[in-house]
Specification:
317 residues, globular, alpha/beta
Amino acid sequence: MTVQGLTTTEAPFIENAQRNGELFIQQPYELYSDENQDTWQRLYRLIHPKWERYAAAEFLAGVEKLRLGPDAIPRLEDINRFLDPLSGFSARAVSGYVPAYIFFDCLRQRAFPTTITIRSGKRLEYLPEPDIFHDVAGHVPMHTDRKFADILVRFGEVARRAAARSREMEAVDGSDDKQDRLNAVRNTIKAMARFFWFTVEFGIMRQGRDIKVYGSGLLSSAGEIEYSIESADVQRYPLQLEWVINQYFEIDHYQPLLFVADSYEHVFDLVEQLETWMDAGRLDNVAPGEPHINEEDLKSFLAAGIEAKQQPVPQPT
């Protein structure tokens, strides 16, 4: 009998879910093959020594709190049992690509869209698509830290404000005005994506006399985590909002440019500043270049803008 497996780009379960329009799914743990489990074990054992040397203290603490280990792919229900009391966050299984606004709004609601497939054992070091090792071993340990979790929630709130603003900007008439509005929304999404990339995904931070890694893209790459700190080929500059939102990035190679945060409070303050700049129109025309904002991402913000105008933002209880 052939085991289906949940290998990235080779999983019939995921293909069926996508074909049926199912974005949020359950983790069918019984479908993981022996090869899938072996890939997790090899990845974990390869990167764990690098975590001990280069990862931020909060990440290392998160690994312990979640009881992550090399033995088996984690069950999301177990992850959430430990995670929820710490920060209110949960890992929520998805079938693949999540449009930008939906992704950010999940963060606002303290839910992290989590890929359940795992890369092929033949491609341990690099994978352009997210997988469960990237999402659970790279992202989720940081979610145990309340300061970092609050950054994600605040970022989601900024996305909600961006969606509402897209509706407020809607032109009464005139195709030129409409195109200007759409371009402004695209640029705002681009600025947000760049900020997220250079902080949550590829962030490094001063901790004492050292620079440590807190970005998931680095924390899930045994090669790049060391490269980001040790290589003389990496440019490392202080994290500043005007630089980050105007800096394009490419995903198919190690990053040549990283930004160093002073603290999690520093990153949180910049998210606040991001919203202020957005309301002032300073994100409407950022520097060109990657990432490309596809139509699904654009539509997700525009659709949310209509909803935001129809419904008031719920107040905390």
